[in-house]
Design brief:
The complex is a heterodimer.
Chain A (H helix, E strand, L loop, with lengths): L3 H5 L7 E2 L5 H11 L3 E5 L5 E6 H10 L8 H4 L13 H10 L4 E6 L2 E7 H28 L5
Parallel strand pairs in A: 1-2
Antiparallel strand pairs in A: 2-3, 4-5
Helix pairs in contact in A: 5-6
Chain B lengths: L10 E6 L3 H11 L6 E7 L7 H4 L6 H4 L2 H8 L4 E5 L9 H7 L2 E4 L5 E2 L12 E3 H8 L16 E5 L3 H11 L2 H5 L5 H8 L5 E5 L11 H7 L5 E5 L1 H4 L3 H9 L3 H15 L7 E6 L2 E8 L5 E13 L5 E12 L3 E4 L3 E2 L8 E2 L4 E2 L1 E2 L2 E3 L6 E7 L2 H4 L8 H17 L11 H11 L6 H18 L9 H7 L4
Parallel strand pairs in B: 1-2, 1-4, 2-3, 4-20, 6-14, 7-8, 7-14, 8-10, 9-10
Antiparallel strand pairs in B: 5-15, 11-12, 12-13, 16-17, 18-19, 19-20
The chains are: A alpha+beta, B alpha/beta.
Chain lengths: 149, 467
């Protein structure tokens, strides 16, 4: 299973922010959309960084004037990007190993979505549930209709 | 005004598509505590069950047994089925909006993905999905023809559909005769001259999508010797590293099974099933008559993407495969539903967790939902549609509690039934289907099969005395 199927039912909405916007504006977006991270994009809408609530928390501990700083001052620039054809399993493993909570997904350098570790875990859980459901049905069939093949 | 969902005004729901997603959603609605709900289910073919009837292979009857659970759902007096009624032909989205509080689209993924290579449209190059629908007796596909006088066939892809097609091509007439395969398909496959079936994967055995039981079945065929090439089944360095980092017993087992195939020597069975890995078709060659005369393959190497997924990259090594028949099985794709927003990137209805979205505002459209493959794309097994449908139904219930639903002019069951009788008088009810089911299984008992299917709409109507 690829991560395209996670994006398919997430809708096309990716909340983005520009590097020169302030942290105050960024926090307003996080609150408004009830999310944990924003993708920072250049004028061509290509991802150049990610700003997570943790980035802001860490900076706030050091400096109380964090609200007026720019997004580019706090964002993480070294971002791992996914592509729609990436396998759910390897994405889950990489996010767990590298402790990444959000993965922007690009197609031909165009930002097409973002998935969270929660999305990945839920998709894996649903896959397992589906397999269990199938096995239960087959067992019921074996016991319920002994003559059927 | 009373809110729908009560005895005074039951919640009226239309479900478009009678496959697993539609039935799981119906079940979920009926199980919602305190909700009084009535479901009308539509399908463009006269019979229910979607891909369980028309997709699941005829030699996999155990999987088809899920229909017993669907019949239980359908036995609820608040359920009606309208088979042979097509959205966009007999009814429009506006017709549904005029009669229901909520509409749920569960139309599945009706077409296949293309390979995008020269020669793909030559004769004897087919979508595996069409072959599958044909041997399963789908009325829209029963009249297709496949040239089984060829000696070599290739199945492109290593998912479960590819495994089904390779298996059906390799089965003996005796094996097939004990299934509910369509009678014309049994006849054609019994006369088949195919001696070699190639199954082609672009990555290695570890990355192949088919499940271990399916791989194992390929090694247990009565009339075909399975083989693989040792150098293609040995995991490469990147695969070994990935498996060391995250050991996965199922994948290890899959590699072991396929490596064992590579060690086998032919036992003289009439057919050969050849599994190939790390190869991609780059061209289908014309035999001079507009039909497939061969396939050019390029050998691949794996590389890791930023997230660690191993993907194929073409090398400069090519190889020609002398096949005369090709089935592509590189994925399904959804087809837009007339009047419903579509997300072309993913081939699904534009949605967020099952709520259909307005393409301009990206906000949910009132009273329109989706579930199953047309919601998330073609992934998972039949049972995966249960949690998927549950997610959508949870959204429907949440919206209902906030009084968000359509305000139909006439939500009475009788009104919409009148409309359908007018537009498609030949529709089939669930009662009609149960009678057909009884006739099909009776005909099967007489011939030692699970059932003998009706494959023409007019035969179904005749059997019901309505021709």
């Amino acid at each position: 299973m690829t991560i395209a199927s996670l994006l398919a039912k997430k809708g096309p909405k990716v909340v983005t922010v520009q590097p020169e916007q302030t942290i105050r504006q960024a926090l307003a977006l996080l609150a408004e959309h009830n999310i944990g991270a924003l993708v920072v994009v250049d004028p061509e809408s290509r991802p150049i960084g990610i700003l997570s609530e943790r980035d802001v928390v860490r900076a706030a501990v050091r400096d109380e004037a964090v609200f007026t700083k720019t997004v580019s001052a706090l964002m993480t620039r070294d971002v791992i990007l996914g592509v729609p054809q990436d396998d759910l399993e390897s994405v889950g493993r990489t996010m767990t190993d590298k402790r990444i909570r959000h993965l922007p997904v690009v197609d031909q350098r165009r930002l097409v979505g973002i998935i969270s570790i929660g999305d990945v875990v839920k998709a894996q859980r649903d896959l397992y549930r589906g397999e269990v459901e199938n096995l239960q049905m087959e067992l019921t069939e074996e016991h319920g209709r002994p003559t059927a093949r | 005004m009373t809110r729908p969902g009560t005895e005074a005004q039951p919640l009226r729901v239309a479900i478009v598509g009678a496959g697993p997603a539609g039935f799981y959603a119906t079940d979920q609605l009926f199980r919602t505590p305190g909700l009084v709900v009535e479901v009308d289910m539509y399908d463009r073919v006269p019979t229910p069950y979607g891909l369980v009837r028309a997709g699941v292979a005829p030699d996999h009857q155990k999987i088809k047994a899920v229909t017993a659970a669907f019949d239980k759902v359908a036995a609820n007096p608040a359920f009606r089925f309208f088979g042979g009624v097509e959205l966009g032909r007999h009814l429009s989205v506006d017709d549904l909006r005029a009669h229901y509080h909520m509409v749920l689209y569960t139309t599945g993924a009706q077409t296949d993905r293309r390979m995008g290579i020269p020669g793909e449209d030559l004769q004897r190059s087919h979508a595996a999905t069409e072959f599958v629908a044909w041997y399963n007796g789908h009325p829209d596909y029963r009249d297709l023809t496949f040239d089984l006088s060829q000696e070599r066939a290739a199945v492109v892809g290593v998912g479960n559909v590819a495994a089904d097609v390779a298996r059906i091509l390799s089965r003996t007439p005796e094996e097939l005769a004990a299934t509910d395969i369509a009678d014309y398909a049994l006849e054609a496959l019994s006369a088949s001259r195919i001696r070699e079936v190639y199954v082609l994967g672009r990555r290695g055995p570890a990355q192949a999508a088919f499940t271990n039981p399916e791989v194992r079945e390929l090694g247990e065929l009565a009339g075909a010797d399975v083989s693989a090439q040792p150098e293609e089944v040995e995991p490469d360095e990147l695969t070994r590293q990935a498996l060391e980092r995250a050991p996965d017993r199922a994948t290890q087992k899959k590699i072991e099974i396929i490596k064992e195939y590579a060690r086998r020597t032919p036992t003289g069975k009439p057919r050969r099933l050849v599994m190939r890995f790390l190869v991609s078709p780059v061209e289908l060659r014309d035999d001079g008559t507009g039909a497939v005369g061969g396939m050019r393959l390029v050998k691949n190497r794996l590389y890791a993407t930023a997230t660690g997924t191993l993907q194929p990259k073409a090398t400069d090594q090519v190889e020609d495969l002398p096949v005369g028949l090709v089935f592509r099985s590189v994925g399904y794709r959804g087809v837009p539903v007339p009047g419903v927003p579509f997300n072309d990137d993913w081939g699904v209805i534009l949605n967020a967790k099952g709520r259909v979205l307005d393409p301009q505002t990206k906000h949910p459209l009132v009273g329109q939902y989706t579930a199953g493959w047309i919601k998330r794309g073609p992934t998972g097994v039949i049972g995966t549609n249960k949690p998927d449908a549950a997610e959508t139904v949870a959204g429907m219930i949440e919206d209902l509690a906030r009084d968000i639903h359509l305000r139909p002019a006439d939500p009475s069951p009788a009104a919409v039934e009148r409309l359908i009788r007018e537009r498609q008088p030949q529709y089939l009810s669930y009662q009609d289907w149960l009678r057909l089911d009884e006739i099909e299984t009776r005909r099967g008992r007489e011939t030692g099969k699970p059932r003998v299917k009706f494959t023409r709409v007019k035969d179904m109507l005749a059997a019901l005395g309505r021709a």
